[in-house]
Specification:
The complex is a heterodimer of chains A (474) and B (435).
Chain A: E1 4-11, H1 15-26, E2 31-35, H2 42-47, H3 49-67, H4 82-107, E3 110-113, E4 115-120, E5 123-128, E6 131-142, E7 146-148, E8 161-162, H5 164-169, E9 176-180, H6 184-195, E10 199-203, H7 215-228, E11 231-233, E12 236-244, E13 247-254, E14 257-263, E15 265-268, E16 272-274, E17 307-309, H8 320-334, E18 347-349, E19 354-359, H9 362-368, E20 373-378, H10 383-387, E21 394-399, E22 406-413, H11 416-429, H12 433-438, H13 448-458
Chain B: E1 2-4, E2 14-20, E3 27-28, E4 33-38, E5 43-47, E6 52-57, E7 64-66, E8 70-76, H1 95-100, H2 110-114, H3 131-140, H4 158-177, H5 212-227, E9 230-238, H6 240-255, H7 262-276, E10 282-285, E11 290-293, E12 299-301, E13 303-304, E14 309-310, E15 313-314, H8 322-337, E16 351-355, E17 374-378, E18 382-388, E19 391-405, H9 411-426, H10 430-433
Parallel strand pairs in B: 12-16, 16-17
Antiparallel strand pairs in B: 1-8, 2-4, 2-7, 3-6, 4-5, 6-8, 9-19, 10-11, 12-15, 13-14, 17-19, 18-19
Helix pairs in contact in B: 7-8, 7-9
Classes of the chains: A alpha/beta (474), B alpha+beta (435).
């Protein structure tokens, strides 16, 4: 069978893959996009960012309704029609997936559904129910992403032991849910289920939830989760799981104490693994690290001159917006431009409250012994936070002491994910604390906290009083 | 506090330490000269930014240091010394910014920053620049760590990138024109073969290194001589009356602390002639192909120092009285000999006077001091037998030699300038001198 010839083949239609395919097509390249799922959009759209945010938004209302009682507004207990909630969530995904498909068509990007397998550096075989096709290309971009890791010990073939994928399907509202792993996925989905009324227990092996984020940013999340969840157990381990009737028996260990508990469901959120296993990469020069992530340079080039890789498959921060930027870089490099990834990647955890940061963190500065000055503005002093009835927030700037340049921004609080965009702009533009303090921020908004954090650095924030000498030097 | 080398002014971002005037443990006052730094232009004194005790000297004579480099550690009054040798690495938050603004640092105007040559201080963070600027730099193949950012926090903006490119261009053309084969008009002078000659074959010799100032003088003289078609016009000015005036008033000047010298008169005479002949107070801008006529009169005075020739400049000489000029001359000459003239004070001259009268000699042919276009060389005045009104009279004649850039100034113009200059020397009145 004659192979299909194309300039660029993109393997995987997640936020990295479709962004690469669309941009290459916009630049006049002939592009084929290969995706094994029926619906485009990858994990982000189908089993990650989007469905989790849809559910978080839906369940947030339940929490907010309950919490409005002390403001004099009470509601009857909510009735949750799971089938309807699932259908609404599904409709969001369908709309977005369909949108991507339509955009591909408009650009003349040929979408082939099937599993891709490299036959050589410039040849890809795609298999599906109809059979197989061969694609011969100039350049390939691998964007096959990652999947939730499920350690063998927990993989009992029992659907009640779920990864995030299963948890987002929302088959039922379990009475007791164990979440293994207090990272962002575990904490976000814990928030969803706790909102729906489930007793959520989180077990985290490290000494904190959301490890990696600065401790002062995690604190409000932990404090609220302690109220919303049944329990958060850090420095604890799950030793064994087994099926007992309709429940899961879980053997855990904390401070050397073992105990057995029964849960209706278990969510395993202990990290993500690269989907690099069955791609035929051994037929190419592409190199992987010991965990299976494809190794690339700042130009997204793999060891094979015809093959680029972007997104989760290359490891590091597994974030859709990072993949989308890498998609641009890869295509620009293919087009002959001297592009490279050198950008600030914001991270957002959609817990309640949200945590967001970008650039340098205090943790990283400590580890790398980078001198910094930190300027903080607690939200207790923000009028807008008070009207939201959510003063559990903090905005902080990580500054270079000599130049007062903003090296990083960290925010915890209601809507932190939206607020961090200003931080990204500040870091990317090389703005200084003075720049942020000088910009007029609208009142009353939470964005003022960024300005006021900068002002605390100079010792004259309007709504808080911090002497400059005590303005958190570290 | 760490004392860093301050900005030295336009085009000079580094220099060689020629003198360390303080010792470790020494107490210094704010503004006291701690180092002397020699660069392309001159020797500049580096003042202490604050009063304190010298904890550690971080440079030695002969070191080349760049702007921003730490030259010594100072325990400022009120601070305690860091224990033992290792200096306090992360300086206190607020001081470094203040350090860089040393007293003599001129406000950095855009022209000055366009001439920045040294690399900015090394940072562990990537250069502060917007993504669009980083992209542009990459497309142009420019390493942003080498570009000095002019904005708040050292942020690099488009103007900085442009200035950096212009500087690279300038450097490129400079090194090109420095190549021997460059000017086709100049009869192909082969590059001088640098060959060490063993003079000791013929007798005992003493060797010492060429000072940086000497190298600079050598380079500039060669450059000026090679690029400017020189003509020197000779004449004599009758200064009999002038000296009489000086004699009458010298005591009054001395009483007020000023030394009334011939050079003072010469400045006055030159300014009068320059006003009549603006092309002598001009420069050629080769880049734009324009003649730049200056509406100010800044007169450079060649000062003979132990280290070599220095040319401090008297600003706005046209607006100053003979008394003011005499005072300033005295001050500049003293400081030049002590090598304490700031670089800024040696810039911006429009015409130079070299007076050898104090030493001796008659006519000589000075070399034009680029980018100026003319220079006046004065020899020693001498009594001569002069025929006036068919009678021989003893008159004091001052030998003058006016070298000029023949590209801009024609012989006729030069002759007219000389006539007016001589007249100016010969027509000083009581009113010009009286205090």
């Amino acid at each position: 069978m004659e192979p299909i010839k194309t300039d660029i083949v993109v393997l995987g239609a997640g936020p990295g893959g479709y962004a690469a395919a669309f941009y290459a097509a916009d630049m006049g390249k002939k592009v084929i996009l290969v995706e094994q799922d029926k619906r485009l959009g990858g994990v982000c759209l189908n089993r990650g960012c989007i469905p989790s945010k849809a559910l978080l938004q839906a369940t947030k209302l339940i929490t907010e309704a309950r919490e409005s009682a002390h403001r004099g507004i009470t509601f009857a207990s909510p009735q949750v029609d799971l089938a309807k909630l699932r259908a609404w969530k599904e409709s969001v995904l369908e709309k977005l997936g369909g949108g991507i498909k339509a955009l591909a068509q408009k650009r003349g990007v040929q979408v082939i559904q099937g599993r891709g397998h490299f036959e050589g550096s410039q040849s890809l075989r795609v298999e599906n129910e109809q059979g197989q096709q061969f694609i011969s290309y100039d350049k390939a971009i691998i964007a096959v992403g990652s999947r939730s890791a499920l350690p063998k010990a927990f993989d009992l073939g029992n659907p009640r032991i779920m990864t995030s994928r299963g948890a987002l399907e929302l088959e039922e509202i379990p009475q007791d849910l164990l979440i293994v792993g207090g990272g962002y996925i575990g904490m976000e989905l814990g928030t969803v289920y706790a909102g729906l009324g489930t007793n959520v227990v989180v077990i985290e092996a490290l000494d904190t939830i959301l490890a990696g984020a600065d401790a002062d940013l995690v604190r409000p999340v932990a404090a609220r989760a302690k109220k919303m969840f049944k329990e958060i157990r850090v420095k604890a381990r799950v030793l064994k799981m087994s099926t007992v009737g309709k429940q899961i028996k879980v053997e855990t260990e904390l401070d050397g104490q073992r105990r057995e508990e029964l849960y209706d469901r278990v969510l395993v959120a202990v990290g993500r693994s690269p989907n690099s296993g069955d791609l035929g990469l051994e037929q190419t020069k592409v190199e992987k690290d010991e965990k299976g992530f494809i190794q690339v340079n700042a130009r997204q080039e793999t060891a094979d001159p015809a093959i680029y890789a972007i997104g989760d498959i290359t490891g590091g921060l597994m974030l859709a917006h990072k993949a989308a930027k890498e998609a641009r870089i890869a295509v620009e490099c293919i087009l002959g431009e001297d592009s490279r990834f050198e950008h600030v990647v914001p991270a957002v955890v959609f817990t309640d409250p949200e945590v967001a940061w970008c650039g340098l963190t205090e943790n990283e500065a400590k580890v790398k012994d980078i001198p910094i000055t930190v300027a903080k503005f607690p939200w207790g002093a923000s009028g807008r936070a008070l009207t939201y009835d959510r003063t559990d927030g903090l905005t902080k700037l990580i500054l270079e002491p000599e130049t007062e340049r903003v090296l990083g921004v960290g925010i915890v609080g209601h809507g932190a994910g939206e607020l961090i965009a200003e931080g990204v702009l500040a870091v990317e533009m090389g703005a200084t604390a003075r720049d942020l303090a000088e910009c007029i921020h609208p009142h009353p908004t939470l964005s003022e906290t960024v300005m006021e954090a900068a002002e605390t650095f100079f010792g004259h924030a309007t709504h808080t009083h911090v002497r400059k000498s005590t303005a958190a030097q570290s | 506090m760490d004392v860093k080398l301050p900005r030295l002014g336009e085009g000079s971002e580094s220099g060689v330490v020629v003198g360390i005037l303080v010792k470790e443990g020494q107490v210094v006052t704010k503004g006291q000269t701690i180092l002397e730094l020699e660069n392309e232009k001159a020797v500049a004194p580096i003042p202490a930014p604050a009063a304190g005790t010298v904890a550690k000297i971080r440079v030695k004579e002969g070191d080349r240091v760049a702007v921003g480099q730490v030259v010594l550690s100072l325990v400022v009054v009120g601070e305690t010394a860091a224990p033992s040798a290792p200096p306090p690495a992360p300086a206190p938050v607020s001081t470094p910014v203040a350090n860089t603004a040393a007293p003599e640092t001129p406000a950095s105007d855009s022209a000055a920053s366009a001439d920045d040559s040294a690399e900015p201080a090394k940072s562990i963070h990537p250069p502060a620049a917007a993504p669009s600027i980083r992209l542009l730099a990459r497309q142009l193949g420019i390493d942003l760590t080498k570009v000095r950012g002019s904005e708040n926090g050292g942020r690099i903006v488009l103007a900085d990138l442009r200035a950096y490119i212009q500087r690279l261009e300038k450097l490129a053309t400079a090194s090109k024109s420095a190549k021997p084969a460059a000017p086709p008009a100049a009869a192909a002078t082969p590059a001088p073969v640098v060959e060490s000659i063993d003079f000791s074959k013929w007798g005992p010799v003493t060797k010492k290194p060429l000072s940086v100032l000497r190298k600079v003088i050598s380079h500039r003289m060669t450059e000026n001589w090679n690029t400017i078609p020189h003509v020197t016009q000779f004449d004599n000015a009758d200064i009999t009356a002038l000296l009489e005036l000086r004699k009458q008033h010298a005591a009054a000047y001395a009483a007020k602390g000023a030394h009334l010298t011939l050079t003072g008169f010469a400045i006055k005479a030159v300014v009068a002639a320059l006003k009549l002949h603006p092309t002598f107070n001009a420069s050629i801008d080769a880049a734009t192909g324009e003649v730049v006529l200056k509406n100010y009169f800044h007169i450079g005075i060649a000062v003979d120092t132990d280290g070599g020739l220095l040319v401090p400049v008297i600003r706005d000489a046209d607006k100053k009285s003979l008394f003011e000029l005499s005072k300033e001359l005295q001050d500049l000459a003293t400081r030049a000999r002590d090598r304490k003239v700031a670089l800024e004070e040696m810039k911006g001259g429009t015409f130079t006077i070299s007076n050898q009268g104090g030493i001796g000699g008659a006519h000589f042919t000075p070399i034009v001091n680029k980018p100026e276009v003319a220079i006046l060389g004065l020899g020693r005045g001498a009594w001569q037998a002069v025929v006036r009104e068919k009678k021989i009279e003893p008159r004091m004649l001052l030998p003058i030699g006016l070298s000029y850039d023949h590209r801009l100034i024609d012989g006729g113009t030069a002759a007219r300038f000389t006539v007016d200059l001589v007249r100016a020397f010969e027509t000083f009145t009581e009113a010009d001198v009286r205090l």
